[in-house]
Amino acid sequence: MKKIRVLLVDDEQAFITTLAERLEIRGFEASAASCAEDAYVVVRSKKSPDVVVLDLKMPGVDGIDAMVAIKQFDPAIEVIILTGHGSTSDGIGGMKYGAFDYIMKPVDISELIVKIKQAYDKRYRQGKNRRLENDR
Amino acid sequence: MIGVLRKIFKYLIMEPSEAAESLTVHTRYKHFRRTLFIVMTAISMIPLIVTSVLSYYQYLSLMQKEAQNHLRWNAESANKTISSFVEELQAVIVFVSEQHSGDFFRDQQSLSSLFTQLKRKYPGVVDLGFINPEGVQETYAGPYNLRGKKYGDREWFLEATGRGVTISNVFLGYRKVPHFVIAISKKLQNTEDYWVLRVSIDAKTLDQFIGHIESEASDDIFLIDEAGVLQTTSRFYGAIIDKYPLTVHPDKSGSVIITVDKGESISTLKATSHIVGTPWYLILVKRGYTYGKNWIAFQIQLLIIGCFGASFALLVIIRTANILGERIRESDQKREAILSEVEHTSKLASIGRLAAGVAHEINNPLAIISEKTGLMRDILDLSADFPNKNKYYEQIDGTMDAVNRCKVITHRLLGFARRMDVNLESIRINEVVREVLSFLDKEALYRGIKFNLNLRDNLPNIKSDRGQLQQILLNIINNAIDVVDKGGAVSVSTSMRDAQTMQVDIKDDGPGIPPDIMKHIFEPFFTTKTDGEKKGTGLGLSITYGLVKKLGGEISVASIKDMGTTFTVLLPIELKAELERAE
User: Measured between CB atoms, which of B368, B375, B419 is closest to A12?
Assistant: First the structure.
């Protein structure tokens, strides 16, 4: 079975590398980017992620703008918003711009995995529908 | 007056804090009220008093003038009457003397018959005498035995020989009876010598005549001579021949002189006029001329109007000063309450922001700790057994527990900073209260605490967040249960504050909250529960506060020592979703 490709974007390097490692252990193909620009590079590469876990507050380009840019490049990529603010309204705000879901820091790994899987399923279903439509 | 005005001005421009420094709150308003009262009284009373005094004196002088004019007019008419009386007498005697020669008068018989005729016509005539140039009364007709008496040195005799005719003042003479004399002199034929015809008239005649000139304008009317001897009886100053006790200012012109005499016990008005051709001065006396009916009526009116006006003004002033003082006190209190409310709210808001900031900053390293620890556990899971592996697990679990506790705290802090979702639904408030109380029933039963419910029926449903509402009520009721002693009671009542606001009161009969603690109860990490078992985080009420604000409501607390505490939560019937989003 194909591994789910996850891109973690957060300016807290220690956080994303550790989280990436933990996801790897759990059978994901995880990569980390510490800013929006690095994330764009990964998204445009051949190993474009299925799901992006995106921190809202980053120096430079912030999470929402990064998400909009990623969605513009490939609408099929699902984004899960990561918020350190404990604020659901930020998460809800993100969902308005097309985020799949949101999760609060500190992250409970099992909760994150459930959300990533749900996002991947959605992407997979939509891709299938799109293909069916194209076939018609 | 100026000092008082300055004081008031100073009070008005003084900053409230400054004013509070100089006076305690209570005396400040009392002082203000008193100053206001004094100033307003002065402002209204001074014109009233000035007007009253002015009109008093105006009217007084008017009355005086009127009395003076009246008296003057009376004096003039009395003067004329007396003059004409005297002139008539004089004219008769002049006529008689013109008709007859000196020899006729020298004859005793003809003199006596003339006297009888005169006496018949003028009963006041006492006697008639003929005096030869040597001053000796040659013939005499009358009741006294005065023939041969010498009058050569008498003033009237000298005056008569000089001027032809004279009227004497009243005197006693040889007969010792008051009378006056009209004397007429005639030249003896072919000589330079004068004989004199003398007519004595009883002073009583003059007295009666004067007595008949009755006048309302005067209280006394009498004649005096130049030396100040009374010529007629005076009501106030004595009988005929008595000395008039006051000085007269002789003025021979005949015009009336009005004098106001204040030296006597009652102010007295006097009109003095000389009766031309006589040695007499007519004096009219009006005593207490101010005591006329009009004057007394005016005084009473002035007094009544003044008293009525003054008491009415005082009443209005007292009422106004009280109302103004009360209004100012109320508005000051209101302003102070609003200020402290604003201060409190902004303090809590800034504490909230601070808490949120801290929570956010801690969340990131906390996330790293959480992930690192998680990774350690993952690695342990993947590793083969090694000595102390379980101990490592224990350490990791301990760290994770600590992380989770921190997580709860940071999430609560962020919750206090109003960062939680609101799920609006239609709620029956009484239902929520009952639900919350059902959570606490066991503990209440265990501690013997009674719940008193006073839930109003027919309350409208409110649109709010059920979970958060539960949390709010749970926090407050929980606190109430904690403070009441065994056997105490906690009352919950619901009602409508107004058409748009629902009110929930939670009252306990605990020890009450001291004022110094009251100020801080909504602040995060402020707790009074310091004993081990019941140790509080100090977040309960601050979260409650945040939640109530989030639901668009208000929370307030009132406490009386040893009587208990009442928390009042006001909730809008319909929470505006937009308002929530804006935050």
Answer: B368
